Amino acid sequence: MVGELREVLALVEQQTDEVQRQTAELVSLALEEREWDATVSTPESQAFLVELVAEAHADIARGDMEDGGWDRQYRDHADSEGSMANPAPTWGEVYEAPADVSANDLLRLPDDGGTDELYDGMLIRGFTTPGHGAICFRMGGVLYVYAQSARFRNRIVQNALFDLTPPRATRKTVLAPDLAIMRGAVPPSWSVPREAPLLAVEVISTSQTTTELALKARFYRNNGVDEVWLVDHRSRSVEIWDAQGRTTLDDSATLTSALLPGFSVAVAFLLDG
User: Fold this and answer.
1) Could you tell me the CA-to-CA distances from 246 to 153, 217, 224 in Å, in that order?
2) pTM attached to this predicted model
3) How far apart are CA 8 and CA 11, in angstroms?
């Protein structure tokens, strides 16, 4: 495992000083988030770093780091229990928000075609492209057809806000997956629910990277979401985050889920139609 880590680090070392600095910063933040020290002494932490740095190199190869995709500012603070600081979100435009902003405050913002979320008290604004919307449309359609044919009664929603603020947190986290499957068959409310969805789907936009969305996926899993799908049109893959860990399907694979008995769809169809 250490040899694999050295191999991917050697690839990163061939890049510019700025890219190396950004990679080191990301690794440091990830270690803080997972509450591991920098000695990387356990097999689990070694495996995590191999995966993390390999992702960093993949982003370099696509040019995401060179064009400023990772050139973000991070703001550290501890919660009331003194836990480790969280890295700031990087999957959209980030703005400071009033300390007392609430989930329902987001519902009062203008409907201008963008999505508004809160992560640790920071407002995140994002916009979609036609390609992003097409994948979301296909995914929603496939899930709807499945639900009708399998008599699956859980509600499927799109761009719906969920208040996922951890119990001891002093700042709100309210996220809106591109698609989500709610728990149970009760009609969706017109306010922001505090119950985490059963499954969350995120389609990675052109301005985002897999590494950036990994922060969001990890937060989902740590705060009650049973399964997360990250759909990436550039790498032509779907990442599944669940209780078994993290699995990547390429465009020759079929997407299934233990949460959806009998459900299956070709990854290539989700990407291309």
Assistant:
1) 27, 10, 16
2) 0.69
3) 5
